[in-house]
Amino acid sequence: MAAMGESPSPESIEVQPSSLDMVVGATQDLSVTLHYDDDTSEDVTDSATIESENNSVASADGNTVEANNEGETEITVSYEGQSETVSANVEPDNGDGGGDN
Predict the structure, then answer these.
(1) Do the beta carbons of residue 84 and residue 15 sit within 8 Å?
(2) Model-level pTM?
């Protein structure tokens, strides 16, 4: 916990959703919250760095993840020395009405 007069220190980040199950062509926005050691938190979605381990499966543009091809990859979200990894599972789009048809 921060002493009186000191700024709180970043303690962890939380990413929502905590895992992604998507079909090819779908997109999903991530929300990123930074938690401080004084039990406060802040939305840092617009400032966080979001990167995909395998862009051919899923790529990140800002806070949006796009499913490109069938497979699995990890999405790493980082901010102020804190990081969190989210798994992304991309399935083929079977045309079964699972979208805006």
Answers:
(1) yes
(2) 0.84
- 74-99, pLDDT tens digit by residue? 999 999 999 999 999 999 988 754 44
Domains and CATH numbers, the chain: 10-89 (2.60.40.1080)
Integer CA distances (angstroms), 2 to 15, 39, 80, 83, in order: 24, 10, 17, 21
Burial letters 29-62, b for 16+ CB under 10 A, else e: ebebbbbbeeeeeeebbeebebebebeebbbbee
User: Are 65 and 45 contacting, i.e. CB atoms less than 8 angstroms apart?
Assistant: no
DSSP 8-state assignment for residue 94 = -
